[in-house]
Amino acid sequence: MTAAAEPALAPHAQPALALAPHAQDLLFREARTANTFTDEPVTDEQIQAVYDLIKYGPTAFNQSPLRVVLVRTPRGRERLLKHMDEGNRAKTATAPLVAILATDHEFHEEMPRLVPHAPDAGRTYFSERAVREQSALLNGTLQAAYFIVGVRAAGLAAGPMTGYDAAGLRAEFLDDDHEPLMVVNIGRPGPDAWFPRSPRLPYDDVVTTV
Questions:
Q1: Between the CA of residue 53 and those of 49, 61, 104, 142, what are the distances in Å?
Q2: Rounded CA gap, 27 and 149, in Å?
Q3: What is the distance between the alpha carbons of residues 32 and 25, in angstroms, rounded to a whole number?
Q4: Which of 138, 135, 136, 143 is nearest to 160 (CA)?
């Protein structure tokens, strides 16, 4: 008598997220906005590694409007602090590194090398200043969000802030073709670095299927 065939084993269920759990925690679940920092320096090599990772984040037409000003020197920090809201000054003064993230309204000038298969895209779609400003705001903000995640991927804490005098910051560090998006304190978290975790909306309050 022929033996009955063994029942087929159910295929191993694949996890919903391909990223390892510890990496998920590093980037999102356990990552927090730091309000105090240790004095451990943040190196240029770390920031370059962050940029070389996040530059691959998607944007419209592969545009790259993000511009980063690293504030390292005591004089640079002094120039920055006078434009920060009072509640942001102390932590900005003590962070090992501060980055001003801005968006470039003349980003279209770089598009021939960023979109080589459509070298005229910049002139075709972004010849008007108002259109460029709107696109630069959206895509620069996208890149700024990638930057924050990249800082977390480096094992550092990021403290993004929008409490500042934008006109003063632009005049001090940028020009009329660049708009500040946020100021980010960067470093290893110090004592009592975190406020209590605020609630997040659950899936069913956010996602609709049609």
A1: 6, 19, 20, 14
A2: 6
A3: 10
A4: 143
Looking at the DSSP assignment, which residues form a beta bridge with residue 129? none
Confidence (pTM): 0.91
Give CA 191 to chain center in angstroms.
24
CB of 83 closer than 8 Å to CB of 165 = yes
CA torsion, points 20, 26, 29, 30, in degrees to nearest 10? 140
Mean pLDDT within 156-171:
97
Distance CA 76, CA 129 (A): 30
pLDDT, residue 4, reads: 54
Q: What are phi and psi of 185, to 5 degrees?
A: -80, 140
- β-bridge mates for residue 84, sequence order: 164
Whole-angstrom Cα distance, residue 5 to residue 158?
Answer: 58
For 30-80, the pLDDT digits (tens) are 999 999 999 999 999 999 999 999 999 999 999 999 999 999 999 999 999
Q: Which of 137, 53, 52, 133 is nearest to 101 (CA)?
A: 137
87-144 residue pLDDT tens: 999 999 999 999 999 999 999 999 999 999 999 999 999 999 999 999 999 999 999 9
* Separation between Cα atoms, residue 11 and residue 31, nearest integer Å: 34
